[in-house]
């Protein structure tokens, strides 16, 4: 990661949430996916901070952030990020969310649209049956989970609790998200629904259905990329993000 202009821990909803801020300009909040952490966005931060104030954070229990006994839920995690924005005195921001981060972004778009200028939701799902069951045996995804465990042990304040953390968040994944087309149809935030052309985790039909359910949503298919497009093709990913969030 580049050197942050500001970093620290915000006390939100009973946890300590690690965050970092880079650059200046219209704000954009980057939210990582499940089991990950803020540093996954290093290539995006380096580019986006040239023209934007970029905010990254570790979601509750992930990376350097702590967790408590509260059951994981997307609404709670969205509340964490809104509290972080309050802590940073940011009223409104563009949001780029990947996987669980995209789901958190959709939750905010539905319930707190006044906080978002635009939403770039990459590799998200809105019901549990949108996840491809083949992901459980996918080698690329398996390598990500192994890498995430190593990163957790390196970054976390509770490095020996990775298995407990995974067990806690897995309870959420069994039943969430679970939104209807009617709920998606009420989204007013300008939204891009984004997927790699060979995403390992999310069914393509599910992504298409999401885009058609959200009024005015733009469907973006990233070529030659999978669930991990921001790592695999960072230059193309950054161009796609900037083209959408800077659109007037």
Automatic annotation (TrEMBL):
Give start and end of each AB hydrolase-1 domain. 27-143
Q: Which SUPFAM superfamilies match?
A: alpha/beta-Hydrolases
Q: Please name the GO terms that the record assigns under molecular function.
A: serine hydrolase activity
| Gene3D superfamilies in the cross-refs | alpha/beta hydrolase (3.40.50.1820)
UniProt cross-references to InterPro entries, sorted A to Z:
AB_hydrolase_1, AB_hydrolase_fold
> What name does UniProt use for this protein?
Pimeloyl-ACP methyl ester carboxylesterase
């Amino acid at each position: 990661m580049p050197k942050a202009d500001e970093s620290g821990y915000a006390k939100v909803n009973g946890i300590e949430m690690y965050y970092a801020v880079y650059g200046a300009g219209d704000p954009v909040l980057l939210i990582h996916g499940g089991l990950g952490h803020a540093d996954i966005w290093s290539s995006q931060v380096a580019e986006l901070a040239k023209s934007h104030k970029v905010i990254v954070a570790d979601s509750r229990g992930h990376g350097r952030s702590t967790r408590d006994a509260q059951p994981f839920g997307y609404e709670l995690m969205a509340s964490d990020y809104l509290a972080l924005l309050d802590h940073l005195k940011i009223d409104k921001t563009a949001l780029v969310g990947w996987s669980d981060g995209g789901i958190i972004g959709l939750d905010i778009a539905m319930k707190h649209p006044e906080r978002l200028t635009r939403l770039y939701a990459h590799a998200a799902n809105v019901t549990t049956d949108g996840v491809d069951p083949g992901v459980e045996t996918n080698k690329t995804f398996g390598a990500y989970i192994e890498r995430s465990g190593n990163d957790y042990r390196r970054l976390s304040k509770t490095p020996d609790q990775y298995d407990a953390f995974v067990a806690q968040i897995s309870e959420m994944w069994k039943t969430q998200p679970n939104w209807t087309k009617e709920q998606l149809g009420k989204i007013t935030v300008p939204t891009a629904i984004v997927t790699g052309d060979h995403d390992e985790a999310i069914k393509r039909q599910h992504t298409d259905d999401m885009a058609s359910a959200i009024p005015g949503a733009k469907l973006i298919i990233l070529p030659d990329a999978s669930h991990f497009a921001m790592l695999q093709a960072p230059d193309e990913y950054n161009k796609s993000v900037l083209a959408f969030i800077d659109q007037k």
